């Protein structure tokens, strides 16, 4: 057998040796493949086992310090303490004093179904944790971030509100799931649902538990009396008690109630027909009248509770919290006095107001004025009421974005003119007039609508939206519509709250840093956990935008054209903006509201320390409208009182100009470009404006330089014309003595026939009127007294006058009189020349040289007459020998009625023997020849004639 065995062994070996080489090598390769796969699988299993062990270990590590399920905690509540901003004063303790516990069997099935359909439709199918729902929540969190959507069941909510802190961490979620499983092991579904419905929070005023909510909202004595639509409404409230409150927000409440009804129909709790019928019921139809009055600080506490629930998911009424707030009790007490008619006089009981006071640096809310005659849980006009902001939106949507993105200056020229929206709809200013070119500062100060729209269009809706969002105003998301151009003047579908506006405006005062307005700084839990709830500041705009917008809003208060001059307060630097909104045409018609009636009146203002937003108006159109001066000025009146009070005894501060801003003098806008003033610019047209550094204008305006040149040229023309006119209208009068009589003649230049005269004569016998009437004329005075001087004055109906005088020769001179010389002709000629020079001197001193140079000989005699005829002149050597410089001393005034004295002291020459060629207007009679050498007597010289 051994041989056989050997032969068989050999045969086997031989067979293996004879196999093809490739086949013999293939089998090991296949064996290697199988070994690698097994190794991969083994590795995966090993990793899985290690991971499972690690996961289990981590799980048990996370739940190791989880609290125990305590029956007393589940069924009892622990009150929370609310502290003022000093961190020591407890202003209120809120808790279980208003709970009404109801047993499971006393809760109607319609109520149970409404809550299960809304909060946990698989409540009766899971064991505390619904992994199917968690999967959906994970997908939502993957898309929108951790915490975007919760997968908590009703059981988990009971655990969370009873045992755990509200931190959204993996550890807390794991502990919540573990405790929910433990709770389901210890209690029945019915018991858990009973706990949930008795602990849940429904509304401000410490309304929690289904029984208390039914009584509060619908006035029923028992939860058993609730109808389907009422049960659906209450089931929709816990998600957002303030947002969906049917008393204060009926529109949102209706949507939420209908959502619950749809969920009930979808999950088979009711039919679709029943859901549709319930939807037809007005959400406010069965509401009970809210009569419970608020207690001290309730308005502020309501906002505290809202914030704590929103930010922590904890129930302040049962979680035993310590809540630290921003409440300034001094400010809140004063605001309460304002709301209670102790500071200002409200026009009537229905007139409402809402206000919020914010610390600019931190965003902390100091005080809230929720309204007048409020009841617990009623509408809060400061935090919940949304109204159109009117022109108070202009700094946020119009001018702020323009400065931020386009680097507009405060003096940016904008033309206020007839205008329309892009769709062709006309837009008008409140006053229905136009101001032409104005600066952005003035446009805001006057609250002009057309420049505001142009600013909005210049920046664009997207940039305006971005700017507003940075200030906490998500307008299009809340309104459900895209930004439209009507937004530029506050034309929203719904509106904003004073809380939102106070937060937005405070960023202007805080150098562009936005702090979301808040009432809670931190929360401490019974287990020692502490959560900081103070919002982190973020930059909403550049510092130059904040400062320049602030300065523009200071003009609203300080400038003569500003709409908020009434809020000026000594010692306080105040900036702000007014705003109003109107009723719709339908509201005016329905409630008989006059065109001048206003729906809302706002004032948002701030100092370096505080911002206050004030709204005034009526809750509904049927309650009334704003018309009287007291009503329209109430928002500003409230602001002034509150800002004065809260600023007392505190540093006032000031708005600091950043390095990114420069101030420059510019000409007030007359066109699209700003320019620096020239030396010719009137001071009244020079103003100072702020510019982003590097954008200030460098060109100097030539507007008034050109005007000045044109005006000087025009003045010269006018002067020349006036001289000519004076020549043409001045009357003439001459007087001469001849043949023993005086001849007097008068006339107007150019022979004006429509001129009337009055001629008077002054002689040794006194004054007398010689003639009056129209046209030219003359008169002869016979037998004048020898040696006497006679003066004559002619006055026209145009107020012009002229004078002339003549001296009668003595009797000894009359014998030598020679009429052939006719000296009166020379006198007349000289008088006319003097008249021209006199007028030239009176009208334009700068032109005297030019005019006199044309007639050098005539200027030897300066006009030195007077209305009383007293004229004393002397001319030494004034002949035609070329002495033209004889005007060295002229002290006469032509028409002042005072005697003149003219002394011509030119170069003196010895007169020639023949004086017949002397045409001087004034000359002393020649001395007769000596007796030893008789000579022909000289012709007696007459006294000069003078015209004034």
Structure in words:
The chain has 948 residues and is α+β, with helices and mostly antiparallel strands. Strand 23 (756-763) and strand 24 (766-774) form a beta hairpin. Helix 15 packs across helix 18 (461-470).
Quick structural summary:
Helices cover 37% and strands 17% of the residues. The chain has 948 residues and is α+β, with helices and mostly antiparallel strands.
- Mind describing the biggest β-sheet? 5 strands, mixed
Strands of the largest sheet, in order across it?
Answer: 2-1-5-13-14
Q: In percent, how much strand structure appears in the residues?
A: 15-25%
Unreliable residue stretches: 1-6, 22-27, 814-948
How would you describe the shape?
elongated
Structural features:
elongated, alpha+beta, 5-stranded antiparallel sheet, disordered C terminus, 5-stranded mixed sheet, 948 residues, 29 strands, disordered N terminus
Write the layout of secondary structure elements.
Layout: H1 2-18, H2 21-63, H3 71-75, E1 80-83, E2 90-94, H4 109-119, H5 131-144, H6 154-163, H7 170-186, H8 189-199, E3 201-203, E4 207-208, H9 210-218, H10 228-236, H11 250-266, H12 272-279, H13 298-312, E5 322-325, H14 329-339, E6 351-359, E7 365-369, H15 394-406, E8 413-416, E9 419-420, E10 426-427, E11 436-439, H16 440-445, H17 449-459, H18 461-470, H19 475-479, H20 498-509, E12 513-514, E13 520-524, E14 530-532, E15 538-539, H21 543-558, E16 575-582, H22 585-591, E17 598-606, E18 610-618, H23 629-632, H24 634-647, E19 661-667, E20 686-692, H25 703-729, E21 731-738, E22 741-748, E23 756-763, E24 766-774, E25 777-782, E26 789-796, E27 801-807, H26 811-814, H27 823-843, H28 848-852, E28 871-875, E29 900-904
Parallel strand pairs: 1-5, 28-29
Antiparallel strand pairs: 1-2, 3-4, 5-13, 6-7, 6-18, 8-11, 9-10, 12-15, 13-14, 16-17, 17-18, 19-20, 21-22, 22-25, 23-24, 23-26, 26-27
């Amino acid at each position: 057998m051994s041989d056989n065995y050997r032969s068989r062994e050999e045969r086997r070996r031989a067979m293996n040796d004879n196999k093809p080489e490739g086949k013999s090598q293939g089998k090991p390769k296949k064996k290697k493949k199988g070994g690698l796969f097994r190794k991969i699988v083994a590795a995966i299993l090993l990793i899985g086992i290690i991971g499972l062990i690690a996961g289990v270990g981590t799980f048990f590590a996370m739940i190791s310090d989880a609290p125990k399920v305590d029956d007393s905690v589940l069924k009892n509540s622990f009150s929370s303490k609310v502290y003022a901003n000093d961190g020591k004063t407890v202003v209120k303790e809120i808790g279980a004093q208003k709970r009404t516990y109801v047993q499971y069997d006393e809760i109607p099935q319609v109520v149970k179904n409404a809550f299960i359909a809304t909060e946990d439709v698989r409540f009766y199918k899971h064991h505390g944790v619904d992994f199917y729902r968690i999967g959906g929540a994970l997908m939502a969190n993957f898309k929108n971030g951790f915490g975007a959507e919760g997968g908590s069941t009703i059981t988990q909510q009971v655990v969370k509100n009873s045992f755990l802190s509200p931190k959204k961490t993996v550890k807390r979620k794991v502990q919540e799931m573990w405790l929910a499983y433990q709770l389901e092991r210890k209690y029945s579904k019915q018991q858990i649902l009973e706990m949930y419905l008795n602990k849940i929070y429904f509304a401000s005023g410490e309304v929690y538990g289904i029984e208390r909510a039914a009584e509060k909202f619908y006035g029923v004595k028992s939860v058993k009396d609730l109808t389907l639509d009422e049960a659906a409404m209450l089931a929709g409230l816990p998600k957002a008690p303030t947002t969906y409150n049917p008393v204060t927000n009926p529109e949102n409440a209706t949507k939420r109630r209908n959502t619950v009804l749809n969920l009930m129909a979808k999950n088979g709790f009711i039919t679709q027909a029943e859901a549709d019928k319930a939807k037809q019921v007005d959400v406010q139809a069965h509401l009970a009248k809210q009569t419970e009055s608020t207690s001290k600080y309730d308005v502020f506490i309501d906002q505290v509770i809202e914030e704590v629930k929103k930010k922590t998911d904890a129930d302040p009424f049962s979680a035993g919290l310590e809540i630290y707030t921003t409440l300034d009790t001094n400010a809140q007490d004063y605001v309460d006095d304002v709301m209670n008619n102790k500071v200002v006089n409200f026009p009537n009981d229905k007139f409402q107001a809402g206000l919020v006071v914010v610390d600019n640096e931190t965003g902390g809310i100091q005080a809230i004025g929720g309204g007048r005659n409020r009841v617990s849980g009623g509408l809060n006009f400061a935090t919940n009421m949304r109204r159109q902001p009117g022109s108070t939106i202009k700094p946020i949507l119009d001018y702020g974005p323009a400065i931020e993105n386009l680097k507009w200056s405060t003096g940016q020229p904008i033309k206020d003119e007839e205008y329309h929206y892009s769709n062709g709809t006309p837009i008008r200013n409140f006053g229905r007039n136009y101001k032409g070119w104005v600066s952005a500062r003035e446009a805001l100060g006057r609250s002009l609508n057309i420049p505001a729209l142009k600013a909005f269009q210049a920046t664009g809706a997207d940039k305006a939206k971005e700017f507003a969002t940075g200030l906490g105003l998500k307008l299009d998301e809340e309104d459900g519509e895209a930004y439209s151009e009507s937004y530029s003047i506050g034309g929203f579908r719904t509106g904003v709250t004073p809380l939102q506006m106070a937060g937005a405006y405070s960023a202007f005062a805080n150098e562009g840093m936005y702090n979301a307005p808040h009432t809670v700084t931190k929360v401490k839990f019974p287990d020692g956990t502490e959560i900081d709830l103070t919002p982190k500041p973020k930059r909403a705009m550049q510092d130059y935008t904040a400062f320049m917008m602030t300065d523009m809003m200071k003009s609203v208060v300080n400038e003569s054209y500003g709409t908020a001059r009434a809020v000026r307060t000594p010692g306080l630097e105040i900036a702000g903006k007014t705003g109003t909104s109107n009723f719709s045409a339908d509201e005016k018609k329905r409630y008989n509201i006059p065109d001048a009636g206003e729906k809302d009146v706002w004032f948002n203002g701030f100092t370096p320390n505080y911002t206050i937003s004030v709204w005034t108006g009526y809750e509904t159109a049927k309650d009334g409208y704003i018309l009287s001066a007291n009503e329209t000025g109430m928002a500003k009146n409230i602001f002034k009182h509150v800002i004065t009070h809260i600023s007392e005894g505190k540093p006032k501060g000031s708005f600091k100009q950043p390095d990114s801003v420069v101030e420059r003098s510019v000409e007030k806008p007359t066109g699209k470009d700003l320019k620096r003033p020239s030396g010719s610019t009137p001071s009244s047209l020079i103003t100072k404006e702020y510019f982003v550094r590097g954008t200030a204008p460098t060109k100097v305006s030539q507007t008034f330089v050109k005007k000045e040149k044109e005006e000087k040229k025009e003045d010269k023309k006018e002067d020349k014309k006036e001289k000519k006119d004076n020549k043409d209208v001045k009357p003439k009068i001459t007087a001469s003595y001849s043949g023993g009589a005086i001849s007097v003649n008068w006339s107007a230049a150019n022979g004006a026939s429509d001129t009337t005269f009055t001629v008077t004569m002054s002689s040794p016998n006194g004054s007398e009127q010689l003639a009056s009437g129209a046209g030219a004329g003359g008169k002869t005075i016979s037998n004048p007294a020898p040696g006497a001087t006679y003066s004559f004055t002619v006055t026209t109906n145009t107020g012009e006058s002229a004078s002339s005088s003549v001296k009668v020769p003595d009797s000894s001179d009359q014998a030598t009189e020679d009429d052939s010389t006719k000296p009166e002709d020379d006198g007349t000629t000289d008088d006319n020349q003097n008249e021209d020079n006199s007028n030239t001197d009176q009208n334009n001193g700068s032109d005297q040289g030019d005019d006199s140079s044309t007639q050098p000989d005539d200027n030897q005699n300066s006009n030195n007459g007077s209305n009383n005829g007293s004229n004393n002149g002397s001319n030494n050597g004034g002949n035609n020998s070329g002495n033209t410089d004889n005007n060295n001393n002229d002290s006469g005034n032509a028409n002042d009625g005072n005697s003149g004295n003219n002394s011509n002291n030119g170069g003196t020459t010895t007169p020639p023997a023949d004086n017949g060629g002397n045409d001087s207007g004034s000359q002393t009679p020649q001395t007769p020849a000596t007796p030893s050498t008789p000579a022909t007597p000289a012709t007696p010289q007459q006294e000069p004639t003078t015209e004034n």
